[in-house]
Amino acid sequence: TLVLVDELGAGTDPQEGAALAIAILDAIGAKGTQVVATTHYPELKAYGFNRPDTINASMEFDEETLKPTYRLLVGIPGRSNALDIAQRLGIPQAIVDQARSLTDTDSQDLNAMIADLVTKRKQVEDEQLHLKTQVADSEKLHRQLKSEFNAYQQRKDQLIEDAKVQANTIVEQSKTKADAIISDLRKKQLASGTATVKENELIDAKGALNALEQQPKLKKNRVLRRAKAQHDFHEGDDVLVKSYGQRGVLMRQMGKHEWEVQLGILKMKISDGDLERVKPEEPKRARATV
Length: 290
What we know:
- This protein is an alpha+beta fold.
- Among the domains are: about 1-130, 3-Layer(aba) Sandwich (Rossmann fold); about 220-275, SH3 type barrels, CATH 2.30.30.30.
- Helices cover about 50% and strands about 20% of the residues.
- It has 7 helices and 9 strands, in the order βαβαββαααααβββββ.
- It has a 5-stranded antiparallel β-sheet. Strands 1-2 form a two-stranded parallel sheet. Strands 3-4 form a two-stranded antiparallel sheet.
- Helix 1 (about 15-30) packs parallel to helix 2 (about 40-50), helix 3 packs antiparallel against helix 4 and helix 5 (about 105-190) packs antiparallel against helix 6.
- The protein starts with a strand and ends in a 13-residue tail after the last strand.
């Protein structure tokens, strides 16, 4: 149940009216009823402050314009503005001063306390609004910086990938030229019958050239993932020695980038850049004869 009471205890002696209002509010509150009561009695303002489950509230009043702002101030009782309004309306200052001197000291202290609470509340609200604005600006700046950083990261990754592609193009061109030179040297060695350059030196040189190749990111590139899998070597793997065009079997790893490869009856040390993993050969089926 909600009970609304306007100016409870008014129209009689202020002290008796305030005492009666307090007693009535206690009786209604004892029944568990919600009450909203308006009053000008300072005793009821103190009652709202001291009683459990009771809270003061007031409507803000602009003393400069002598008009209400229609802002509800919860937790702050309203102060009396009668003397201030009388002064603004032109009542002689001497009369207003005499009225102030006749006002009860407790009432003056209460009004001063209320005025101080209103001022401090206004300061807190202004600071809260300022902090809220700062937080909003900080969040906006954070989102902007995050967006710019992500754009920078994407641009950086793209530049790195472009550089790798360009580097691989240069390496590929160099490998083509190196293959031509090696082929020419082999032909000359066969023609002369002398080996001025050892075969393993040629293979090592080509392996060093292959090591310059840059691997692009493989996250979304199936072709490149398969290419990488062809160079994931283990002992016993079947491989193709690209410089010879011959198949072999990996025996053991002899260095970071070198493997011992069984080529027929020969065992050779070959750079992993010259190797490519292949599927094992299927055994040939014997043909039936009649």
